[in-house]
């Protein structure tokens, strides 16, 4: 299972915040991809939210009022006689429930020399237990159709399920069986060891992970925090089932766990189910957690290579942990340092840095903060570090601005309230405050933020921002080489597909999951079209006092950018961070801070705000979107930054990987192959940007989706006030790329000196569009082939062989182009073996009808997934935006349900025969230079 250690969000932040441009990673640049398809590195806009083809999921941090059903006062809390703490929080957003069970043990409790024991135990929790073997567990997970996974941190291991609310009893039974009767046999560990070591290789291939590992080793030397929760390959090689069983039997007990349930449940009925599932489990005598002392940090400088297209300069400081009395003040300090109105972020508009952000990452007992900046390939890291140190020294000497402290406090409290707009986010919010912070509720955390004073923040700044105890690091880009064409990688192998056998389920699961049911029809939104052509979709949801806005203007830069002006679309999108005609950059951010609104403008735009401030926030969004400014001084800075980013991007392995795949899928003269260069960007003028804006930003290609605590009438009225006067300028541009012929086989290898594990993608174009019925049939078949823990690809490439850590197959749909692909990561000597198994699995889908058991499982999964697609404001908003972008009806999920329900095995086999071509897959491998 993926590890959600405390360093993962920091890795994500480092990667996202420093990205100035998005490399082309597929054949459909400028067209439409599914919302779940990674679009590659993306530019970061206001408040650190990424810009890109679709809005990234916003942080889903719980109201501090009691007017909505999801307030802390509505939560039911009880401790069972065996010590299990239970918190049940109702949320009526969708007929969905999330359970999150938090065991208060993690990598800090591992035996000496075995840092990954907690992580390995987490993996084995999916290998079966007494009364529920691994095949049954996988079968139930697939039929539930939800999301289930786990994460390991230093002090807490979490297991979470999101499933239809009617299936809560099934999920609780699973967790109860795993709490007290885990199988943990040597044969299963031998197989899981291979997969977990692949995970280690994957993470060790990340320059950011390598940096953070070294940082923690220095920052927390002599303590359990010096080791990441992931573990090491040597420790896993000497780990056996006996050691894992001892850890499990020591720490996995009801009196060492907190169970959080959030969603569309009756709290008392849910509590009865909890008692029935867990009530008979015995409590245990728990050992104490090992005590440790922190030694002072000595200043040190690290120099590391990176395969990123830019350099990163960082200064790290030890900071208070999440249970410390100064946690809230430290968090506010981090927010102030990251504020776009602050001096540290000011290094970006001044042209000194490509990106700047302060990231605070608390662990329970201690934490750390990283001030990081990004600089172009070949830039002067020393000069940038000097400016960073000067900013921090000024904060220590003169304190932080009081208005930025108050803005940060408002925003933190608002984000806690906003977490109620996601059922899984609500469960995670409660789990975090209970298990990691020792607080009573998210409201208690909000109170802690409110109590922070400027003096508190200044004191913490003086204590932690000490250069004598800071760890400095520079990650310098290095070239890895150009792609190599070849005849494939490794020798061909032949594998027989194992026989498919139905998995008999325990009676308690069989009774709940066997029968197929169509989900209830999705609530219909209110849809309007303004006179200027703008399409408005409104979905009222009153579970929390929050409104979210999602917008998209259909664009295709590869078709709309004039010849010789490649890169102008990127320049225009980045200029939205410089305010509007009415407010300059600082004044605009101050206006957002005053109402704690998160806003991003551009070709895709988002807004999240408390409903009381919705009119003001929407007015600011429209002001930014409709009246951007292109001042010469700011344009020159953005132009130089973009050109500098491109210089590194065009040499980076990730870019070369995506470019190689693109060349394998489209003709040599395809518009999607157009590429901005530093030269084309530096030749642009503010007039070019203004002209592109007026051509490409237009209401007749725009869709706005509003979800939340608002009426359709209010939403329409406010949109008319703010966007109704927007005019179309000139003829409507062409924004659909021309269809492409079916692609053929090709092979490319992209060397990457920074990676230990290879990243492999197999892909081909499809002659099928999303408005054709077989679009549903292939989606159903892909559920069997490669989507999830019970898929054939996962079973054959990971569970049975251990060749990969993760594998998935995907269907990307566009109005004029569609794509099928498989992605996996593997050690170089397993590339050919894994590919052979993958191709064999595709051909098996074509040559033999799937079993009735597999078909029923896939149908059950997809039918249950449909209501779960409405379990957060983001999911609702992005689904509508995606459907509008593809030109599909907004009741597409209901149409899909009808199709899934009636599809036969013969129809599925026929669709795979007609549309997939396993012999035509283009293959691109990014891996170690000596792995080819």
From TrEMBL:
The keyword Signal applies. Residues 29-41 have a biased composition (Low complexity). Residues 1-29 form the signal peptide. Residues 86-232 form the Peptidase M16 N-terminal domain. The keyword Signal applies. Belongs to the peptidase M16 family. This is Insulinase family protein. It comes from Endosaccharibacter trunci. The lineage of its organism: Bacteria, Pseudomonadati, Pseudomonadota, Alphaproteobacteria, Acetobacterales.
């Amino acid at each position: 299972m993926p590890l959600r250690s405390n360093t993962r969000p920091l890795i994500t932040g480092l990667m996202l915040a420093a990205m100035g441009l998005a490399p082309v990673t597929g054949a459909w640049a400028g067209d439409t991809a599914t919302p779940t398809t990674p679009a590659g590195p993306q530019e970061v806009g206001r408040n650190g939210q990424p810009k890109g083809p679709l809005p990234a999921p916003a942080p889903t941090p719980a109201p501090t009022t009691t007017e909505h059903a999801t307030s802390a006062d509505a939560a039911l809390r009880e401790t069972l006689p065996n010590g299990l703490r239970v918190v049940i929080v109702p949320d009526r957003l969708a007929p969905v429930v999330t359970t999150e069970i938090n065991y208060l043990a993690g990598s800090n409790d591992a035996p000496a020399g075995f840092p990954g024991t907690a992580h390995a135990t987490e993996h084995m929790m999916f290998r079966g237990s007494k009364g529920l073997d691994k095949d049954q567990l996988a079968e139930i997970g697939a039929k539930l159709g939800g999301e289930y996974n786990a994460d390991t941190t230093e002090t807490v291991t979490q297991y979470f399920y999101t499933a239809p609310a009617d299936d809560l009893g099934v999920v609780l039974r699973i967790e109860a069986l795993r709490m007290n009767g885990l199988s943990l046999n040597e044969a299963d560990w031998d197989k899981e060891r291979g997969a977990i070591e692949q995970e280690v290789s994957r993470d060790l291939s990340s320059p950011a992970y390598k940096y953070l590992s070294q940082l923690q080793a220095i920052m927390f030397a002599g303590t359990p925090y010096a080791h990441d929760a992931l573990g090491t390959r040597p420790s896993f090689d000497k780990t056996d089932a006996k050691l894992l069983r001892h850890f499990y039997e020591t720490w996995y007990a009801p009196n060492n766990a907190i169970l959080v349930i959030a969603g569309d449940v009756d709290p008392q009925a849910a509590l009865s189910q909890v008692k029935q599932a867990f009530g008979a489990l015995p409590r245990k005598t728990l050992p104490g957690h090992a005590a440790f002392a922190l030694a002072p940090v000595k200043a040190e400088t690290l120099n590391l290579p990176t395969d990123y297209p830019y350099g990163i300069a960082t200064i790290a400081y030890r900071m208070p942990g999440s249970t410390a009395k100064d946690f809230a003040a430290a968090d506010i300090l981090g927010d102030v340092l990251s504020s776009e109105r602050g001096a540290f972020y000011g290094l970006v508009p001044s042209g000194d840095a490509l990106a700047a952000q302060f990231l605070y990452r608390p662990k329970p007992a201690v934490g750390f903060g990283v001030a990081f900046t990004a600089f172009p390939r070949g830039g002067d890291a020393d000069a940038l570090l000097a400016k960073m140190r000067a900013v921090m020294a000024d904060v220590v000497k003169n304190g932080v601005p009081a208005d930025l402290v108050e803005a940060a406090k408002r925003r933190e409290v608002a984000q806690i309230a906003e977490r109620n707009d996601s059922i899984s986010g609500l469960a995670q919010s409660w789990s975090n405050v209970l298990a990691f912070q020792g607080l009573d509720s998210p409201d208690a955390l909000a109170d802690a933020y409110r109590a922070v004073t400027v003096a508190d923040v200044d004191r913490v700044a003086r204590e932690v921002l000490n250069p004598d105890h800071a760890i400095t690091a520079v990650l310098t880009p290095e070239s890895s080489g150009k792609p190599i064409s070849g005849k494939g990688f490794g020798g061909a192998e032949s594998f027989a597909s194992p026989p498919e056998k139905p998995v008999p389920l325990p009676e308690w699961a069989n009774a709940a999951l066997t029968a197929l049911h169509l989900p209830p029809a999705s609530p219909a939104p209110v849809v309007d079209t303004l006179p200027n052509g703008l399409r408005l979709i409104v979905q009222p949801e009153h579970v929390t006092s929050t409104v979210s806005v999602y917008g998209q203007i259909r664009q295709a830069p590869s078709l709309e950018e004039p010849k010789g002006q490649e890169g102008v679309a990127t320049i225009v999108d980045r200029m939205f961070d410089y305010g509007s005609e009415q407010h300059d950059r600082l004044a605009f951010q101050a206006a957002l801070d005053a109402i704690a609104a998160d806003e991003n403008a551009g070709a895709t735009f988002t807004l999240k705000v408390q409903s009381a401030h919705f009119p003001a926030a929407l007015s600011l969004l429209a002001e930014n979107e409709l009246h951007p400014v292109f001042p010469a001084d700011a344009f020159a800075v953005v132009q130089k930054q973009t050109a500098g980013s491109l210089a590194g991007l065009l040499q980076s392995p990730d870019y070369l990987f995506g470019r190689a795949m693109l060349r394998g899928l489209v003709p040599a003269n395809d518009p999607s192959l157009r590429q901005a260069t530093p030269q084309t960007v530096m030749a642009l003028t503010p007039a070019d940007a203004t002209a592109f804006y007026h051509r490409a930003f237009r209401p007749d290609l725009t869709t706005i989706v509003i979800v939340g605590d608002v009426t359709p009438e209010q939403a329409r009225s406010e949109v008319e006030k703010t966007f109704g006067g927007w005019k179309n300028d000139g003829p409507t541009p062409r924004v659909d790329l021309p269809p492409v012929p079916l692609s053929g086989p090709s092979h490319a290898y992209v060397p990457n000196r920074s990676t230990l594990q290879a990243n492999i993608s197999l892909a081909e174009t499809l002659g099928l569009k999303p408005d054709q019925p077989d679009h549903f049939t292939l989606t159903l078949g892909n559920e069997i082939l490669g989507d999830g823990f019970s898929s054939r690809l996962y079973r054959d490439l990971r569970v049975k062989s251990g060749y990969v850590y993760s594998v998935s197959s995907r269907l990307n749909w566009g109005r004029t182009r569609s794509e099928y692909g498989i992605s996996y990561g593997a050690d170089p000597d397993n590339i050919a073996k894994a590919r052979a198994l993958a191709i064999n699995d595709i051909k098996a889908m074509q040559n033999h009808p799937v079993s009735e058991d597999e078909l029923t499982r896939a149908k059950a999964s997809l039918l249950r997934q449909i209501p779960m697609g409405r379990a957060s404001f983001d999911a609702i908003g992005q689904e509508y935006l995606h459907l509008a972008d593809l030109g599909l009806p907004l009741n597409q999920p209901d149409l899909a349900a009808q199709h899934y329900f009636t599809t036969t095995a013969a129809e599925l086999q026929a669709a795979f025969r007609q549309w997939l071509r396993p012999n035509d897959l283009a293959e691109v491998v990014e891996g170690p230079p000596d792995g080819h």
